[in-house]
Recover the amino acids of this structure.
C-alpha cells in the first residue's frame, strides 16, 4: 500500500502542531501543498516542508521517518488509515482519535489518547502522564478504542475514562483511573499508589497495587470466565501486545465508595 | 464631525410615528433638522434599507463575577475550536467579541442588569473593555444586610431612600435591581424555597415588603428606571401564581419584571407544565404600570448566570455538564450553571413557546421587551432569529413543526397569527427601552437625539437582515459597514447621580466596619478605572 | 484593547525590552503581583505581540475548571460560620491571613440565636496542623488527606469502607458533627492541595450540602492571581497559561505552562512582571534572556534588562483585589511617590506600541 513518508530533517527548535497530518486531512493534496502547511506554535513560522522531506503518496498511510518529543497532536482526530512514527512523539498523540491505527516505535509524551474514541494506539516505549485523560474541563477522557504500551505509563492514567482499554506491560503510575466512569485499565506490572480515586465505574486489572484507598472494599473472588473472555478479545485485537493469560480466579475490590463505588479492581495472580 | 445625510431609506421611528422613505441628517454626533441649503456633506445612500435608531438591550449579563465564573467553568467550550471566538459555543463571549457582535446587529447600548455593589469596581472595569457600544448597569439590592436590617428595624422611608441613593451612586448604576429579594438571604439560613410572603429567618422581612420599600425609594429619588425585579420562584412550574401576585403587589406603581418567560409556568397537562402566557398578557393589559422583558429561550448549549443564588443552588444538580459555581456573596452572591436547551425536550420546547406567546399576546410593544436574558435563555446573538420568528409566521411555524408534539399541544402558539411589524420591532428594541431607562436622547431619530443609527438592508429574510447591519453609526461615527465592525472605538458607561442625604453613611460605616473592618467608601467606583479618562456619563434623574 | 486614549510620554526607556521582544521566537510573559489595569495591559501586549502568558502560581484554578465551586466570601464566612473545617497545611497562614484570623478569633455571629461558640475542626497531618487549641484535630492517624476526605464522603452517604470498626466509629462521630453545622465553612489553600484532594473536598461539601449549608473558602491565594484571572477571562474567555497564536488566545495547562516550557527549553525570552520587589523565582530563570518589569530600584537577580514600575495602590492609584475582601477595590495612595515610577500599564502599553506583530483585529 502506498505511504506518505515524512522524513525529519533535523530536531525541531519549537514544538510542532501536527494535527493536520492525517490521511483524511491530507487527502487530495499534492506534495508541494502538504509542504506548505503551517505547523508552528511560536512566532517563528514553520511549514511541513521546513521540517520534513516529503515523499511517497498518500494511500491511507503516513510514516514519520524520525520522531521527536516536540511532535504534538500526531494522529489527532484520526478517522481511519494508519500513522506510524519511527521515533518519539510529544503531547496529545491520538487526541480525539476515532478509528485507524497509530503506532510509535519510541516513547509517547503526556496526554496520549486524550479523549480518544476509537481505533488502536500501540507504543513500543513508555507513555507520559494523563494517558486517555480529558483536556481541561471536558466531561470524558477516553470514550473508546485501545491503547497498548510496552513500557511503563505515567500518573493519572485513564482520568475520567468512560470506555475503551488501556494496557501497559510494565507499571502504571500513581492515581490511575481517577474519576473513571467505565472502561478497563490492565497494568501487567502493577499499579502505583492509590488507583481509582473517585472512580465510579470501570475495571482495573493488575497483579498488585502499591497502596490502596480505604474506600475500596474486599468483595471476595471474581469470576474467572469474564477475565478469560477479555483475554481472548485482547489476543485477537492486539496479538503479541496482549497481556499473558492469568491462572487463578482474581481477588476483587470495589470502590471508590467516596462516590458511587461501582468500580472494580481485580487482583490477578 | 462632518454634516451627514442618510438618504433614500425607509425611516422607522416610533416616537415621531414616522414610517416611510426619507432623510436623516446628523452633525457633531447628534441628529439635526434638515439644513436649509447644505453644500458639502457626507452622504450615506440607504436606498433599499430600513433606518432605525440604535437598539438597546435592557437586560444582558455581559460582565461581572458571575460571568467570569461561567468563563472559568467552561474552558472546554473554547478548546480545540478553530472557529472564531464570535461563534456561540455556550460559554460567555470575551468582551471584545461582545461589543463587536452587538454593534453588528445595530445595538448601541447594553445594560448589564446585575452588579453587586461589592463587585461594581471590577464590573465597571470590565465594561470599559467592551468596544463600540455604550454600557450601563443596574445595582443589586434586596438581599443585603443593610437594607434587610433597616426594614427589620423599621427605619424611615427617608433613610432607606438615602441608602438606595448612596448605593446607586457609589456603584454607578443606572437603576436598581432586586434579585429574588429575601430568598437569597434565606438560603444562607438553609431555606430552600422562598415565595412572596415568606419571611427571612433572622429578619422577619418578606419579598413583598422589600420590593415595596425599594419601589418607594426609587420613586422618591427620581430614578427614571423603575425597580427592575427578578421575583421569586424563577423556573418552577406553577410560578404563574407568583408572577400574578408580584404584578398585584406593585399596587399600580411602576415596576419592571425581568425575564418574565421564566415565570409563565402553570402545572396543567401531561408533563406537569403548561403555559401561563395568556394570564400574563391579561394581567399586563390591566396593569399598565408593569413592563417586562421576555428572557426568550433559544435552543442550544448555554450557561445560566444569575445572582439568584437560591435558584442556582437548587438547580445545580441539573447542570449539564455536571459542574457549577455557586457563591454566597455579601449580599446576593450568585452562580453559573451550564445547561442545554434541547429542541427535543418537551420542557425546553414549551419554554420557547411560552416566550413567543408572551411577545405575541401582549398587545402593547411598550410593555414587553426583547431579551434572551443573555446567556440564561440563549445568547444575544439569537436576536435576529427571534425577530424573524416574531415578524414571520412561516419561520415560527417551521420551528413549531420541529418540536415535540406534546409540548405544542399545550401551547396556544400554533394558533397565533400575529406578526410583528417593523414599527413594533423599533418600539420594542428602541423607543420603549430608551424611555424605560430614562435616556431620553436615545431610541429615536428626532433632532437632538444622539446619532446612534442602525441601517439594515431590507429583506424578507428578517434573520439575515437584522444579523448584519449595512451601516451602524455611533455618535455619528460609522462603526459597522456591511455587517463588519470597523476599528475599535470605546463608548461611555451611563450612570445616575441621585440626591440623597449623606448622613446615612454613618450607619453604613458601622455595618461595613463590623463586617469587613473597612470604611464605607471601600467599594465605591472611582471616576477612572483602567484608562486615564473616565468612561462615565451621568443621566439626569427626574426632578 | 483600549490603549488608544493612553498617553505614551513615558520617562523610562523601553527600547531594550522592545528589541528583545522583537527578536524573540517565543516570548513568555510571567505575571506575579499586578493591578487590574496592568493585567489588562498585559493581555493587550501578549495579544498584539503573540506571546505566551502565565501566572507565577499557575494551575491553582484547575479544579474550578473541572468541577466548579461551592464557595463563600470572607465577609460572609466571618459573619455566619458556626463551624469551620481547616483542611490540609493551614498552620503557616493561620498566623498571617486576615480572613483566617477573623474566622478563628472573631465571634461575629449574625444574631442572638447564633451565639453558640463557633466550632473548629482540622484535617491535616499532625506536623501540618495548626497548634491552636480551639481547633480540634480529626483523628486520621497517618492517613493521607485524599484518603481522609474520601472516608468522610463515604460515611456522609453511609457507604462501606475498609477501615476497622473503631476508626470508622470515630469518623462517623465527626460526620455527625459536620452534619450538625448550620453554615459550615471549609477553608483551604489551593496551592497546598492536589487536584484530586480538592476534587474530593468539593465533593464532600456538595454531599454535605444536600441537607445543611456547607461551603468553601479558599485562603492564602497567590498574589496577583485574582486580578490577572479576572482580566484574562474578560478579555479572552480563558485563564492562564495562554498562548496568543494568530488572532485568538488558546489555553493549555501542559503546553503553555511557563515553568514547564522553560524547563523544556522552549522559551527564549522571559518577561517577569511583578509590581512588587519579590525576587524572580529560580524556576522562571534559565531562558536565554530575561526582562524584569518590577518595583525594584535596580535589576533583580537573573534579569538581563530591567524596567522599574510603581507599586499599585502605594505609588499610584490602582484597582486591586485584597484577599481578605475577595473583590476588587480602588485604592488611592495617601501620598504620591516623588520619583513617579510609571505604572505597569503605562510600560506595557508603551512596549506594545512598538512590539506589535498583530493589529487589534476586528471580530
Ligand atoms: Zn438576568
Amino acid at each position: 500500500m502506498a505511504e506518505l513518508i515524512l522524513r525529519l530533517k533535523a530536531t525541531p527548535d519549537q514544538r510542532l502542531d501536527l494535527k493536520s497530518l492525517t490521511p483524511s486531512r491530507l487527502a487530495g493534496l499534492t506534495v508541494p501543498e502538504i509542504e506548505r502547511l503551517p505547523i508552528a506554535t511560536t512566532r517563528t513560522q514553520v511549514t511541513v516542508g521546513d521540517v520534513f522531506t516529503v515523499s511517497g503518496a498518500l494511500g491511507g498511510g503516513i510514516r514519520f521517518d524520525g520522531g521527536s518529543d516536540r511532535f504534538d497532536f500526531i494522529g489527532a482526530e484520526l478517522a481511519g488509515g494508519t500513522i506510524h512514527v519511527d521515533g518519539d512523539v510529544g503531547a496529545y498523540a491520538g487526541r480525539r482519535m476515532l478509528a485507524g491505527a497509530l503506532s510509535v516505535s519510541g516513547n509517547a509524551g503526556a496526554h496520549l489518547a486524550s479523549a480518544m474514541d476509537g481505533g488502536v494506539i500501540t507504543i513500543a516505549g513508555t507513555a507520559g502522564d494523563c494517558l486517555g485523560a480529558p483536556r481541561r474541563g471536558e466531561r470524558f477522557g477516553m470514550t473508546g478504542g485501545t491503547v497498548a504500551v510496552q513500557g511503563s505509563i505515567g500518573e493519572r492514567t485513564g482520568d475520567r475514562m468512560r470506555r475503551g482499554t488501556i494496557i501497559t506491560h510494565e507499571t502504571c503510575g500513581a492515581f490511575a483511573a481517577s474519576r473513571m466512569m467505565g472502561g478497563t485499565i490492565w497494568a501487567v506490572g502493577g499499579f502505583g499508589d492509590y488507583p481509582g480515586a473517585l472512580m465510579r465505574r470501570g475495571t482495573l486489572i493488575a497483579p498488585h497495587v502499591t497502596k490502596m484507598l480505604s474506600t475500596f472494599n474486599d468483595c471476595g473472588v471474581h469470576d474467572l470466565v469474564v477475565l478469560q473472555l477479555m483475554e481472548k478479545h485482547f489476543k485477537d485485537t492486539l496479538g503479541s501486545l496482549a497481556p499473558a493469560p492469568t491462572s487463578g480466579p482474581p481477588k476483587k475490590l470495589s470502590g471508590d465508595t467516596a462516590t458511587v463505588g461501582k468500580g472494580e479492581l481485580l487482583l490477578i495472580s | 464631525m462632518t454634516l451627514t445625510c442618510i438618504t433614500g431609506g425607509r425611516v422607522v421611528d416610533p416616537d415621531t410615528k414616522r414610517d416611510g422613505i426619507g432623510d436623516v441628517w446628523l452633525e457633531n454626533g447628534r441628529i439635526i433638522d434638515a439644513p436649509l441649503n447644505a453644500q458639502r456633506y457626507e452622504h450615506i445612500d440607504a436606498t433599499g434599507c430600513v433606518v432605525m435608531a440604535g437598539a438597546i438591550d435592557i437586560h444582558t449579563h455581559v460582565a461581572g463575577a458571575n460571568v467570569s465564573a461561567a468563563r472559568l467553568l467552561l474552558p472546554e467550550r473554547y478548546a480545540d475550536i478553530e472557529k472564531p471566538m464570535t461563534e456561540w459555543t455556550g460559554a460567555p463571549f470575551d468582551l471584545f467579541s461582545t461589543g463587536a457582535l452587538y454593534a453588528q446587529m445595530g445595538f448601541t447600548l447594553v445594560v448589564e442588569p446585575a452588579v453587586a455593589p461589592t463587585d461594581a469596581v471590577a464590573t465597571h472595569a470590565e465594561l470599559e473593555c467592551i468596544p463600540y457600544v455604550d454600557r450601563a448597569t443596574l445595582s443589586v439590592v434586596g438581599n443585603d444586610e443593610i437594607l434587610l436590617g433597616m426594614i427589620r428595624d423599621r427605619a424611615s422611608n427617608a433613610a432607606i431612600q438615602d441608602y438606595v441613593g448612596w448605593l446607586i451612586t457609589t456603584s454607578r448604576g443606572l437603576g436598581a435591581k432586586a434579585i429574588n429579594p429575601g430568598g437569597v438571604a434565606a438560603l444562607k439560613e438553609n431555606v430552600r424555597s422562598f415565595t412572596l410572603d415568606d419571611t427571612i429567618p433572622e429578619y422577619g422581612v418578606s419579598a413583598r415588603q422589600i420590593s415595596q420599600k425599594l419601589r418607594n425609594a426609587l420613586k422618591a429619588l427620581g430614578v427614571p428606571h423603575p425597580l427592575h425585579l427578578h421575583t421569586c420562584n424563577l423556573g418552577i412550574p406553577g410560578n404563574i401564581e407568583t408572577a400574578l401576585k408580584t404584578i398585584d403587589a406593585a399596587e399600580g406603581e411602576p415596576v419592571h419584571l425581568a425575564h418574565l418567560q421564566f415565570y409563565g409556568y402553570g402545572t396543567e397537562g401531561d408533563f406537569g407544565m403548561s403555559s401561563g402566557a395568556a394570564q400574563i398578557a391579561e394581567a399586563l393589559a390591566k396593569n399598565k404600570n408593569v413592563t417586562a422583558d421576555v428572557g426568550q429561550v433559544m435552543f442550544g448549549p448555554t450557561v445560566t448566570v444569575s445572582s439568584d443564588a437560591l435558584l442556582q443552588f437548587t438547580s445545580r444538580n441539573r447542570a449539564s455538564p455536571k459542574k457549577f459555581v455557586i457563591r454566597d456573596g455579601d449580599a446576593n452572591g450568585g452562580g453559573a450553571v451550564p445547561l442545554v436547551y434541547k429542541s427535543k425536550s418537551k420542557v425546553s420546547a414549551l419554554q420557547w413557546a411560552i416566550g413567543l406567546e408572551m411577545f405575541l399576546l401582549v398587545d402593547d410593544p411598550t410593555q414587553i421587551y426583547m431579551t434572551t436574558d443573555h446567556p440564561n435563555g440563549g445568547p444575544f446573538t439569537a436576536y435576529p432569529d427571534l425577530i424573524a420568528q416574531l415578524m414571520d409566521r412561516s419561520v415560527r411555524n417551521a420551528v413549531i413543526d420541529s418540536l415535540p408534539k406534546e409540548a405544542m399541544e399545550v401551547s396556544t402558539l400554533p394558533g397565533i397569527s400575529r406578526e410583528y411589524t417593523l414599527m413594533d420591532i423599533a418600539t420594542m428594541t428602541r423607543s420603549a427601552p430608551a424611555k424605560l431607562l430614562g435616556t431620553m436622547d436615545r431610541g429615536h431619530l428626532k433632532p437632538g437625539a444622539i446619532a446612534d443609527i442602525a441601517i439594515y438592508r431590507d429583506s424578507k429574510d428578517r434573520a439575515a437582515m437584522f444579523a448584519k447591519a449595512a451601516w451602524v453609526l455611533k455618535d455619528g461615527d460609522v462603526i459597522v459597514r456591511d455587517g463588519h465592525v470597523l476599528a475599535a472605538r470605546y463608548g461611555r458607561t451611563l450612570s445616575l447621580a441621585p440626591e440623597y442625604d449623606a448622613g446615612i453613611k454613618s450607619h453604613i460605616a458601622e455595618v461595613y466596619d463590623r463586617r469587613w473592618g473597612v470604611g464605607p467608601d471601600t467599594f465605591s467606583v472611582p471616576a477612572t478605572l483602567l484608562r486615564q479618562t473616565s468612561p462615565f456619563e451621568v443621566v439626569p434623574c427626574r426632578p | 484593547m483600549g490603549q488608544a486614549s493612553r498617553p505614551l510620554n513615558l520617562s523610562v526607556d523601553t527600547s531594550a525590552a522592545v528589541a528583545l521582544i522583537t527578536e524573540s521566537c517565543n516570548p513568555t510573559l510571567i505575571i506575579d503581583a499586578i493591578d487590574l489595569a496592568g493585567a489588562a495591559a498585559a493581555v493587550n501586549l501578549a495579544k498584539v505581540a503573540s506571546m505566551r502568558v502565565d501566572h507565577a502560581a499557575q494551575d491553582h484554578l484547575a479544579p474550578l475548571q473541572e468541577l466548579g465551586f461551592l464557595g463563600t466570601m470572607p465577609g460572609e464566612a466571618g459573619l455566619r460560620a458556626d463551624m469551620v473545617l481547616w483542611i490540609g497545611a493551614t498552620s503557616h497562614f493561620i498566623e498571617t491571613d486576615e480572613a483566617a484570623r477573623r474566622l478563628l478569633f472573631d465571634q461575629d455571629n449574625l444574631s442572638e440565636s447564633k451565639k453558640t461558640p463557633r466550632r473548629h475542626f482540622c484535617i491535616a497531618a499532625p506536623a501540618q496542623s495548626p497548634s491552636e487549641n480551639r481547633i480540634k484535630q480529626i483523628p486520621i492517624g497517618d492517613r493521607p488527606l485524599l484518603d481522609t476526605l474520601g472516608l468522610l464522603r463515604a460515611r456522609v452517604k453511609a457507604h462501606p469502607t475498609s477501615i476497622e470498626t473503631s476508626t470508622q466509629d470515630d469518623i462517623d462521630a465527626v460526620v455527625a458533627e459536620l452534619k450538625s453545622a448550620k453554615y459550615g465553612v471549609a477553608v483551604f489553600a489551593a496551592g497546598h492541595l492536589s487536584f484530586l484532594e480538592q476534587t474530593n473536598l468539593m465533593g464532600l461539601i456538595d454531599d454535605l450540602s444536600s441537607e445543611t449549608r456547607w461551603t468553601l473558602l479558599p485562603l492564602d491565594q497567590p498574589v496577583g492571581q485574582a486580578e490577572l484571572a479576572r482580566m484574562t477571562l474578560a478579555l479572552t474567555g480563558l485563564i492562564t497559561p495562554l498562548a496568543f497564536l494568530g488572532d485568538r488566545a488558546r489555553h493549555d495547562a501542559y503546553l503553555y505552562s511557563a515553568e514547564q516550557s522553560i524547563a523544556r527549553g522552549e522559551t527564549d525570552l522571559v518577561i517577569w512582571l511583578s509590581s512588587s520587589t519579590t525576587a524572580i523565582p529560580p524556576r522562571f530563570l534559565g531562558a536565554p534572556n530575561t526582562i524584569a518589569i518590577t518595583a525594584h530600584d535596580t535589576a533583580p537577580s537573573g534579569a538581563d534588562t530591567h524596567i522599574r514600575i510603581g507599586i499599585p495602590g502605594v505609588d499610584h492609584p490602582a484597582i486591586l483585589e485584597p484577599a481578605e475582601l475577595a473583590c476588587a477595590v480602588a485604592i488611592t495612595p495617601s501620598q504620591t511617590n516623588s520619583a513617579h515610577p510609571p505604572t505597569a500599564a503605562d510600560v506595557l502599553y508603551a512596549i506594545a506600541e512598538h512590539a506589535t506583530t498583530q493589529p487589534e483585529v476586528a471580530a
